[in-house]
């Protein structure tokens, strides 16, 4: 196996554990560059798996975040950032929402539900 063949194998392997293919193992043993690439891939796969593992939030965290955001929004005027053009509020054209407050409340409930799960 050469480096090009190994790279093709890297594109198709499952990324779980050590390779079982004897040619791949031999190549990793003899090629420091591919061994380093494989090691990096293993670390990356592990980090991705950890990032997408659901975590339980402490009780009340979603409500605390929501309360903090509400307090901030009520006590601070909108920020005027350099180079940022403030866009006018967009009115909902969806007949389900009577006004923007209904839409905001529904979005807030959806976010809270996601934070709880």
Strand content: under 5%
The low-confidence runs, each spanning 5 or more residues with pLDDT under 50, are none
Give a quick account of the main beta sheet: strands, pairing sense, barrel closure: none
Average predicted local confidence, pLDDT: 77
| Count of alpha/pi helices | 5
Distance between the termini: 46 Å
N-to-C order of helices and strands: HHHHH
Shape: elongated
Walk me through this protein's architecture:
- The two termini are 46 Å apart.
- This protein has 117 residues and is mainly alpha-helical.
- It has 2 domains: 3-51, no CATH class; 55-74 and 93-117, no CATH class.
- 61% of the residues lie in helices and 0% in strands.
- The protein has 5 helices and no strands.
- The radius of gyration is 25 Å and the shape is elongated.
- The mean pLDDT is 77.
- The relative contact order is 0.08.
- It comes from Desulfotignum phosphitoxidans DSM 13687.
- Residues 72-104 are annotated as: Disordered.
- This is Zinc-finger domain-containing protein.
Task: Give the topology, please.
Elements: H1 3-12, H2 22-30, H3 32-51, H4 61-75, H5 100-116
Region (Disordered): 72-104
Protein name: Zinc-finger domain-containing protein
Organism: Desulfotignum phosphitoxidans DSM 13687
Provide a compact summary of the structure.
The chain has 117 residues and is mainly α.
Notable traits:
single chain; 117 residues; Zinc-finger domain-containing protein
């Amino acid at each position: 196996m050469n480096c090009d063949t190994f790279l093709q194998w890297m594109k198709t392997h499952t990324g779980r554990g050590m390779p079982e293919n004897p040619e791949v193992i031999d190549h990793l043993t003899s090629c420091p560059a591919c061994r380093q690439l494989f090691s990096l891939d293993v670390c990356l796969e592990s980090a991705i798996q950890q990032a997408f593992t659901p975590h339980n939030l402490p009780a009340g965290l979603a409500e605390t975040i929501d309360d903090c955001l509400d307090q901030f929004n009520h006590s601070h005027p909108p920020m005027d950032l350099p180079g940022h053009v403030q866009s006018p509020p967009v009115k909902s054209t969806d007949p389900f929402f009577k006004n923007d407050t209904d839409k905001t409340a529904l979005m807030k409930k959806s976010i809270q539900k996601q934070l709880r799960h």
